[in-house]
From TrEMBL:
<protein>
    <submittedName>
        <fullName>YfcE family phosphodiesterase</fullName>
    </submittedName>
</protein>
<dbReference type="GO" id="GO:0005737">
    <property type="term" value="C:cytoplasm"/>
</dbReference>
<dbReference type="GO" id="GO:0016791">
    <property type="term" value="F:phosphatase activity"/>
</dbReference>
<dbReference type="InterPro" id="IPR024654">
    <property type="entry name" value="Calcineurin-like_PHP_lpxH"/>
</dbReference>
<dbReference type="InterPro" id="IPR050126">
    <property type="entry name" value="Ap4A_hydrolase"/>
</dbReference>
<dbReference type="InterPro" id="IPR029052">
    <property type="entry name" value="Metallo-depent_PP-like"/>
</dbReference>
<feature type="domain" description="Calcineurin-like phosphoesterase">
    <location>
        <begin position="4"/>
        <end position="185"/>
    </location>
</feature>
<dbReference type="InterPro" id="IPR011152">
    <property type="entry name" value="Pesterase_MJ0912"/>
</dbReference>
<dbReference type="Pfam" id="PF12850">
    <property type="entry name" value="Metallophos_2"/>
</dbReference>
<comment type="similarity">
    <text>Belongs to the metallophosphoesterase superfamily. YfcE family.</text>
</comment>
Length: 247
């Protein structure tokens, strides 16, 4: 059983934000670092994947829709997101192969929480929308078929941190490391024996300048300004994502 698990979601190829989280003492000391998808689709995809690969067995990878889209873009199926098409072209073949092999879910036993299922969006789909205020009926739908012993589900995808109970099952969204909605900083979670939603502050202005200088993505400066500075509020995001939740 794992005593401490750090969960990093939606890094989106933002190297300075990832470096800030990995420097956290609680992340460095964690028994396992779980990456819940959308890892590389951003302005520094190669660097982010190499840094995470260097963690070796300390990291457990789960695939997200943006990771799948990178693989698809590399095979000729264009993504609707310019940054994803650019990022796919930067990746080495071994990195594409790694993303292609990522599982939809993983389950681990965590102290104080029991069986924890980690996924990107929902356990059955890598781009379904569920939100902090989704209806219980909606949660029952996306959790249909889950083993009863899974008492906690950790998901990402919507870039907004929350914890809530869903018919006696705990749901955790750690928020986004690289594309946070609702506030600047790198958001993540620490599990065991309870759930802590954490935010790592870093020099966002310096990070934006670094991304603009180091990335060859043509719109790197604009990307960094929009996402590292968290120009979109949680209210903005909920309004956009609501229809995907069936509202």
């Amino acid at each position: 059983m794992l005593e401490r698990v750090a969960v990093l979601s939606d890094i989106h190829g933002a190297l300075p934000a990832l470096e800030a989280v990995l420097a956290e003492p609680d992340v460095a000391a964690a028994d396992l670092i779980v990456l819940t998808g959308d890892i590389a689709a951003g302005p520094q995809p190669v660097e982010v994947l190499d840094l995470l690969a260097a963690l070796g067995e300390r990291a457990c990878w789960v695939g997200g829709n943006a990771d799948r889209e990178l693989v698809e873009a590399r095979s000729g199926r264009s993504s609707p997101h310019d940054v994803s098409n650019w990022a796919a072209a930067q990746l080495r073949d071994d990195q594409v192969a790694r993303l292609a092999a990522l599982p939809l879910t993983v389950t681990r036993s965590v102290a104080g929480l029991g069986q924890v299922l980690f996924c990107h969006a929902t356990p059955r789909d890598d781009e379904e929308m569920v939100l902090v205020d989704s209806r219980l009926e909606r949660w029952a739908e996306v959790f249909a078929g889950l083993p009863p012993e899974v008492g906690t589900v950790v998901c990402g995808h919507t870039h907004m941190p929350f914890t809530r109970l869903v018919d006696r099952r705990l749901v955790v969204n750690p928020g986004s490391v690289g594309m946070p909605y609702g506030g600047a900083g790198a958001w993540w979670a620490l599990l065991g024996p309870r759930v802590q939603l954490r935010r790592t502050g870093y020099d966002v202005a310096a990070a934006c300048a670094r991304v603009a200088a180091e990335s060859t993505y043509p719109d790197a400066a604009e990307w960094a300004d929009e996402y590292l500075r968290s120009r979109h509020s949680d209210a903005d995001a909920l309004a956009v994502f609501g229809p995907g939740d069936g509202r």
